[in-house]
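Q: Joint fold for the lines below.
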Amino acid sequence: MKIAVAGKGGVGKTTVSGTVARALARSGHTVLALDGDLNPMLGVSLGVGGEQTELIVAARQAVAAGEEEHAPTIEEIVKRFGADAPDGVRMVIASRVEFMDPGCMCCGVNPVNLVRQLEHGERTVVCDLEAGIGTIERIETGVVDVLLVVANPTGKSLEVARRAIEIADGITEIVVVANRVAGDSDLELMREVLGDRELFVIPEDAVIAAADREGLAPIDLDPDSPGVAALVRLAERVAGAPVAA
Amino acid sequence: MPDAAGDALVPLRIAVAGKGGSGKSVLSGTMARLIARRGGRVLALDSDLLPGLSMSLGSGPDPAEAPLWGATQKKPDGRGYMWGEGMHAALAAQRFALDAPDGVRLLLRGKQRPEGFGAVIGASQTFWEVVHGLVDAPEFRDWTLIGDLPAGQYQVADDWAPYARIYLVVVQPTMQSALTGRRILRVARMRAPEARHLVIANRVRDEDDVRHVEKLVGEPAFASLPVDEDVAAAATIFAETVKRLRDAGGAFV
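A: Joint structure:
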């Protein structure tokens, strides 16, 4: 199946993507984690580390400098611009490079195109989309099985989430992830803005905050902390969703 | 930046960049207001397709339609856009910037619409022309320009802030924020080697947090801003505003 993750920058999209990917891999899925964010950080939350993430990004950027060959096919991109992350997750940088050759499919690739063309086969694909809603507009029916829309209890992130839901509603299954919820008033505020939708709550969690600070995967720091445990339940919930033909 | 804001007579050319959620808009909006309060003329440049700067400026919701459409017309062959009749960068900025509190003027690129990028593309192209034209525009020689760039390094790479003599790169004490800061600094130094590139440590609780930012970014912080409950409260007030707008039928679209 294919899962995409969207939301405003800074809401925890990458933490959700990375932790869900790791949790799925731990429960036996073959996971391909695509980093579709223009500012790729998925390596950090997958547990590859900050410096290693920069090296993987640099290999991708080297295409623009002519130091690395362009990749002609989707599977070639997956093979060439990826790295192995813990629990057997394969991670791939799939966003455009900084200074791109406009004619080249691989350096200007649009993550949604990539997800569309990827045969998921036996794989579970988790795609961390770019911040905002630009890419969601390109998602048609069948491109992804589930869209996770991540929001915090703040005005700007709720506004982005509201727009994302408006665009994707009816096109794909949507699960709204209420991240960094500190209490009932936060949840109430989110319900008021987002309406009657089910909110999958990830409580504010000192372990996730500590992982963010040091650049570690939250699931490596403490898989049983309230926030991480909720993300593992989110992975279970999503994996149980019907897979489109 | 007390030294800079203190002397309102020195017009500054600033671009604020950083990771999403790092506090770019709050910094840009607040600086713009402070400089204007001290008597400086300030044009705030919002090149983000997502809402943010107007909330931090306190100027109310963004208009549904980008004002710069008014300075734009279709090319005669129907392919693409060009300046409207008699328009140029300074005139477009004078005529289509919005009023924000304290006399700040706010120029918008335009905001993402449900019907897609096509709804802002002409205004967006004009915004690009305006920021490039303002670099040498005599009408704005005495103005401070503050650009609030969207998250990440791409607008710096793609030359959306050609006016910037100072890049403020906002970094929180987290790995992702710091890596983003590093990427922005690298691209900004390639784009504008002669500009100043400064790290602003944001939402720091103590001196340890500042050191952590400096360690992860690999260079000293020019200034640091503490965690501020009032700023957090403002974020909640924004949420209330969005809700009220939605209830009222949504000028926000």
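Q: Anything notable?
A: The radius of gyration of chain B is 18 Å. The mean pLDDT of chain B is 88.
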